[in-house]
Amino acid sequence: MSHAVHDDEVPLTLQSAAPKTLGVLDQGALWANLAVSLLGFSGALFLIDPLGGAPLTLAAALTATVVGSLIGTAMVGLSAIPGTQTGQPAMVLLRGLFGARLSYIPTVLNIIQMIGWGAFELWVISMGAMAIFGDTVPYAVWVIVAGVLTTVLTIWPLGAIRLLRRYITIAVIVSLVWFAVQFLGDAPPQTGGTWAAFMPAVDYVIALSVSWVPLAADFARHSRSSRAAFTGVVGGYTLAQVACLGLGVYAVAIAGAGAVAADSTAVFVPFVAAPLGALFFAILVLREADQSFANVYSTTVSLQNLMPRVDRRILSIAIGVLTVAIALVVDVTSYGAFLGLIGAVFVPMFAVLAVDYFLLGGGARWNTAENAPSRWSMLLPWALGFAAYWLTTSTPTVAAWDGMWAGVREAIGFTREPWMNGALGAAIVAALVTLAVGALRRATRDARR
């Protein structure tokens, strides 16, 4: 039985080699479209005032966007390279870092994350459509339509990426430029604010970017080269995310920060109200399906790490149905806390992988077999990096959780300084501990000789 839909499509199981069909333009178009999110427009409120009550100046917000995007996309780009070199999806790739059985831990976390993101995306697609068409079509209908479209795209994922490059990306660029011209003329002057919450804003932007680390290899394994994968991620995603969040800042200013804080979909009003706004906003709403597609597809290939011989089409349909069901009842008010959790889990994991693969010679011995032995020592830097994130971040999430880490800081006598950054703190600690584990491993190996 053949394991491929077509020679230039993703194999149906992990038993077949991944085709290398995506060039730098394909990768760039994919990641640029993933960076332009309707959730990003409403999420600009977190960028402007990440701590609540201490808004940034416009210059500080835009600088945080650029700095956070570059840091986050560099992480995503580097995490894509091993996927290109091994031809394995992200969670299978982690067999080389943790071992086959231990890779199930980040795999389950990633499945939970991707299903959550997929539900968020179906919600925002539906709310965007309702902002254009009103209540004439019920919310549930839009969710189901978006869910069906998402699931269909996951059946032919590489074809969907080529569709993005050839047609959708140009339409999105035109739409963004159109709204930028309109908003720059309509928005009130962006004055006032401080730089006090600059690092929490950078944390937020990094979290937006780094949430894609666990799925970068899912697409990069089909890249023609590591350079194409890295360039496509960093170039496409950085430019588009800066544009998206910058546009969101002005949209929030027009809609009113208070209105957006009370209802995040209020940020859609300026888009629809602009001249020809309904038309161009419809393009952005339709394009949002690439976000839900990426999440459902990544969930599918993550599940294949647990069930490598199951046809991905069956998994895609099952995940698509589940995502629709969740989207019908999802609570989107925890979006900021959700991003904080993502950053805390996957930033240190990326740092451990990057150090082990690129600096400790892991690329030459990476074992992605189903019986890859467990590497328990790699859990230590990941766990310490996770702790470092919460010790150094100043971005609020859930009161009880934040209070617990405040107690930990007090108990160990640690003072969090205003310049500290959770994502960077987690990455640095995880990287240094990984280097120490590697040195200890070499010393032990040498002593046995």
Automatic annotation (TrEMBL):
Record keyword Manganese present: no
Chain coiled-coil ranges: none
Principal location: membrane
Alphabetized Gene3D superfamilies for the sequence: Hydantoin permease
Sorted UniProt keywords: Membrane, Transmembrane, Transmembrane helix
InterPro entries reported in the protein's UniProt record: CodB, Pur-cyt_permease
Keyword Membrane annotated: yes
A Pfam family it matches: Transp_cyt_pur
Transmembrane segments: 30-48, 54-81, 102-133, 139-160, 167-185, 197-217, 229-255, 267-286, 314-330, 336-359, 379-399, 419-440
Membrane topology: Multi-pass membrane protein
Domain of life according to the entry: Bacteria
Listed GO MF terms: cytosine transmembrane transporter activity
Compartments, as annotated in UniProt: Membrane
Gene Ontology CC: plasma membrane
Family: Belongs to the purine-cytosine permease (2.A.39) family.
Protein name as it appears in the record: Cytosine permease
Organism: Nonomuraea glycinis
